[in-house]
Here is the input.
Amino acid sequence: MNSELGTFGTWMAIAAMAAVTYAIRAGGFWLMGYVPLTRRVRSILNALPGSVVVAVILPLAVRGGTAATAAVLTSLAVMAWRRNDLLAVVCGMGAAALVRAL
Amino acid sequence: MRLGLAVTPGIMAFGLVVGATAARHGLSFVQSMVMNFLVCSGIAQLVALEIWPAVLTWGVIVTIALLTAVIGARLFLMSVAMRQWFGQIPAWQAYAGLFFLTDATWLIAMRYRADGGGDVAVYFGAAATIMAGWLAATGIGFFAGGLIVDPARYGFDLVMPAFFAAMLVPLWAGARRAWGWIIGGIVAVAVERLVPGWWFIVAGSITGAVAGGYLDEPAE
Here is the structure.
């Protein structure tokens, strides 16, 4: 690498990324240590996992077109039917590959 | 272990791409592997590598760090959600465990909790399985970069959305909760249209959780 900071710069960039990522990963947990867990806060925390999941997949399904929508819906359906996550993911991928192949 | 297996093929496919990208941008094998272990966030690494210039300056390093923070913002919310479980275990275990927090480990943890599990060893087992698959794949990808066929052809790029969708089923807790999801989902789609980047996840998650939290009937 012929950079201004040389190999040192690469290591610095990696270290910066690692520090930032860990700060984010631990930060939410740490912060919640200072928030009193009232019944309301607990309700919000209970609603959070599902909300994150929906907020991830819904826009991706809309943006990703038919293939992404097919993958998401197939995976949902197979999971609801068989309760097997491996099978659900494989079927979801298969549905996407099928849509793209057509 | 078993809980981590469903996503491992997808993570490995993704890892091949990340490994190959690192090689193409001139990182050494050791540098690439250290990054894969310490950062362990495929999307953040791909974006950072995209802007990785031949000449690294302090300005670029700060930019890369900021981008990593923006892309990783969803991990912050996942970390918040871990409080309910990890708040009950010794702090050193919690903070060690959070190092391995990724989309996949978080989903597995949430599902395991929803099913009533509480054994931290299960979390670490799943995290280790995923990390091992990730490191193996990025390592192979580093050397085999040129040989990779288009991962989109077999639907590998959609593994994470498919896995997320599947995880929605065990998280289902009645129609009342679903209202929060619907509100959050609408906000997420709208924000995705209007704001570039990954902010839609943050906006949709927070709105959905707060809406769900306020619509939820207090337990007692």
Q: What stands out?
A: The helical segments of chain A are 6-32, 39-63, 65-82, 85-101. DSSP finds four helices and no strands in chain A. Chain A touches chain B through 78 residues (CB under 8 Å).
